[in-house]
User: What shape does this take?
Amino acid sequence: MFRHPLAIALSLALGLTVFAPIAEAMQQDSKPLSMREQRAKRMAELGKDKKDTKQAEQKEARYPDASRVSPDAKANPKIIKKLQELQERYEKDDMAGVIALAEEVAAMPAAGAYDKSFAYSMAGNAAADQDNQEQAAEYFGKAVEANGLDNDSHYNTMYNQAVIQFGNEKYADALATMDRFLAETKSGRPEHRGFRAGILANLERYDEAAAVYKELIASNPDDKRILMNAVASLQAADKFGDANALLEDAYGRGMLSESRELRALYVGYMNSDRWADAQKVMEEGVEKGILQPGPDLARDYQVLAQNAYIEDKIPLAIELYGRAAPMAADGEAYLNLAKVLDYAGKKAQAKEAAQKALDKGIKKPADAKTILSR
Assistant: This one.
């Protein structure tokens, strides 16, 4: 085994680029409706606007394969004015008033399933607007269990409950809600399945998450968000080969256009001991302007340089430390460059690098001064 006479003064952990699974919280098809949309929908449900009622009937169902039979969403005539008042309070941004009145409505003996679901869903929206996410999740859950809304509203409410549970880091609860949502709606939509995979990843069930993401990629090959979440799950499961394969394909198709995406690929190469491939991707990224000079890139170049030194590729180590040093946050890269140059017998260049290390600041100035004294 080759034994170097000098120790490299670099302790640099090669961390993974992790892309947290992202739930499309409150997506266009699932978010609480805007006040204008909310009013139109509720007025249609409450029978106040015949035009909106007709449009609601003609609208295509979002969950056509749902096992649940959508109920006839109608308010109790004895309570309808209270529900209209709920809507008006919401439009006036009186969120505390919405919550108080919703509790009152839900407790009324005459309140039916629709009345309770309507009131609780409005309370959930109001709580969410007040950034009381725990309360919002509770109210959305009550709206679902009251079981009075039409299928679209019922399952959007259930989905929003899962999103809020996810945001509150109650991943087991979010998974249970999403499992119910998917079982009942039979939804195969990528955003719904991808959200479930994201929950699995946060539960550290990486193999299961990666399997879902890989299936989604097969049917959505150009969806970069799905791709990067799949990569994150595979890397977290130490399946760097599989992650690299996905990234290589995407890179070949020109999909990796951001610095963090390129870093996911070249860090994956590094973790698989594919150092030359990592260097090539980094150099192409710099050439294309995707990777910008700075301390982060400097640290990654130092990892390459350190490996080159360990493999006794001294000229390459000098080249890579030379690239890292000017853009590093401190003088440690210059010190490493000085040590490698000194080891290679390039005394004058080593002294020059050692002085730059002192000028930029290092933890052990004595190391640089030793090289300068020779």
